[in-house]
């Protein structure tokens, strides 16, 4: 065999060659962005990103990065990270020549087909987005509001039936779990026309969140380290080790259910329905494309919105003046006849303080710690006199942006909804647009934004209309770590019936 002819000198030479190649490639990688400040390891390797991905501390680290190093920070050999709003608007504008970075392939679930989210080609992305937008907007469907209302009431009934505490009986509500059941039923109702029934059974029927939470550290690592990403999300690897429709639980199980519904829809009796699948098909999506977009809705639209609902509940309960004012505003709205059962989206939009609470819940903690890299096009980019060569990936510090003192005031780290109503209407509108950066910018903005906002416009109003809440474990109210998405644990609540329910 060939290896038999290798002497120890040959092996030493091979090892030396590999070592030399590594040193030279590291020097070259360091040199191209040597003028950008950042952590030492990030200047020439992916060790810093890898360590951060596995630490579960992405959120806390992101909050401090730009404070420590300035508006643009080097986080990898070819990666920088910024909280500069004007630069981000330029990168993400509809006329921008920037494309999505290669890290977006870390969202691949299907070995053969791309979802809209992972499409890097701006032209192909824009064409598919134009086909999907009608289904998300509700213009060609029965609209998402009725579906959301159904799940709101299912949530209310679940709490009334199982979690109302009495003076001598404590029935703990684990809000980190229940919030996820709500958003999962909303998304399944919208995507497939029928909710999974998680709220009615009070369980994550298909173990979606358990599976997602188990995978998140691995996904965070493989997404941020290119050579691992190229292996883990390759068609070959996904076929062998990725989620499968044969799985008995988790994302694979949901892929199987989704594919079955789409298959029946495309090869059924042809009955015209006013739902999202009908809209997608009407605008030319193939069966495979529908399957991919439907399953991605679960990943992108369930835990992200649930994260806002969890964090929002925590901050409301931990801020007495917000809790009491929110209850007063709800009571006044009901007495004045300005709230249906459940409150309509239009009614919620007309209530300044309700909207202030919704936007502060969105602002206080980003929905994700994904850096959403965009790739500098040919010719490079100048930023404050510093040159960023073509191929550099510029990431978005959503966490830092939403806590920016420049955008939201010196107390940006404090949960204070009043910031949106103590300024003039023009300033308030601008601040709300800045908060909506959490849904992405420009051509890359999230199609599910109207649905998420509608859920938030309704759920806090209805929860505090029907119930009073108390933190049962204030010393450790909610634990979390961050691996691109948040893994929230706890938030145990004591729930009693509210006298507002009778108004």
UniProtKB/TrEMBL annotation:
The chain crosses the membrane at residues 12-33. One of its GO terms (molecular function) is oxidoreductase activity, acting on paired donors, with incorporation or reduction of molecular oxygen. It comes from the Eukaryota. Heme binds at residue 446. Keywords: Heme, Iron, Membrane, Metal-binding, Monooxygenase, Oxidoreductase, Transmembrane, Transmembrane helix. Pfam families: p450. Its cofactor is heme. InterPro entries: Cyt_P450, Cyt_P450_E_grp-I, Cyt_P450_sf, Cytochrome_P450_monoxygenase. Belongs to the cytochrome P450 family. This is Pisatin demethylase. It comes from Gibberella moniliformis (strain M3125 / FGSC 7600).
């Amino acid at each position: 065999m060939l290896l038999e002819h290798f002497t120890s000198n040959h092996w030493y030479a091979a090892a030396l060659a590999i070592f030399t190649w590594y040193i030279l490639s590291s020097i070259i990688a360091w040199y191209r962005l040597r003028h950008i400040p950042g952590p030492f390891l990030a200047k020439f390797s992916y060790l810093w990103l890898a360590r951060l991905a596995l630490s579960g501390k992405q959120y806390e680290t992101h909050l401090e990065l730009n404070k420590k190093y300035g508006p643009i920070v080097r986080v990898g050999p070819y990666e920088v990270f910024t909280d500069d709003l004007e630069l981000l608007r330029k990168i993400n504008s509809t006329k921008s020549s920037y494309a999505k970075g290669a890290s977006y392939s870390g969202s691949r679930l299907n070995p053969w087909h791309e979802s809209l989210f992972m499409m890097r080609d701006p032209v192909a992305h824009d064409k598919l987005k134009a086909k999907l937008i009608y289904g998300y907007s509700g213009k060609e469907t029965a609209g998402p509001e009725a579906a959301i209302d159904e799940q709101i009431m299912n949530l209310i009934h679940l709490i009334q039936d199982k979690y109302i505490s009495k003076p001598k009986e404590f029935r703990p509500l684990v809000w980190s779990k229940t919030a996820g059941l709500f958003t999962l039923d909303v998304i399944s109702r919208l995507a497939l026309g029928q909710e999974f029934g998680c709220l009615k059974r009070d369980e994550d029927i298909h173990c979606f969140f358990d599976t997602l939470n188990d995978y998140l550290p691995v996904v965070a690592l493989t997404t941020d380290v290119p050579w691992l990403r190229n292996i883990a999300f390759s068609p070959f690897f996904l076929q062998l080790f990725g989620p499968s429709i044969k799985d008995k639980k988790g994302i694979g199980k949901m892929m199987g259910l989704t594919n079955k519904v789409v298959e029946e829809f495309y090869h059924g009796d042809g009955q015209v329905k006013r739902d999202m699948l009908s809209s997608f098909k009407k605008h030319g999506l193939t069966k495979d494309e529908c399957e991919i977009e439907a399953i991605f809705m679960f990943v992108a639209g369930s835990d992200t919105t649930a994260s806002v609902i969890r964090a929002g509940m925590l901050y409301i309960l931990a801020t007495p003046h917000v809790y009491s004012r929110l209850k007063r505003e709800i009571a006044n709205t009901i007495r004045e006849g300005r709230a249906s059962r459940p409150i309509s989206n239009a009614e919620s939009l007309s209530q300044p303080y309700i909207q202030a609470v919704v936007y502060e819940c969105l602002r206080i903690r980003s929905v994700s710690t994904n850096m959403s890299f965009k790739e500098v096009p040919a010719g490079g980019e100048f930023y404050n006199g510093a040159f960023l060569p073509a191929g550099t990936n510029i990431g978005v510090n959503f966490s830092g942006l939403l806590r920016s003192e420049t955008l939201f005031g010196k107390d940006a780290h404090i949960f204070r909804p009043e910031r949106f109503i103590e300024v003039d209407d023009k300033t308030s509108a601008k601040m709300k647009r800045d908060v909506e950066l959490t849904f992405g910018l420009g051509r890359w903005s999230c199609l599910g934004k109207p649905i998420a906002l509608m859920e938030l416009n309704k759920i806090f109003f209805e929860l505090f209309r029907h119930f009073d809440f108390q933190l049962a474990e204030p010393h450790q109210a909610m634990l979390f770590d961050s691996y691109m998405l948040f893994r929230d644990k706890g938030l145990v609540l004591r729930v009693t019936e509210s006298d507002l329910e009778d108004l």
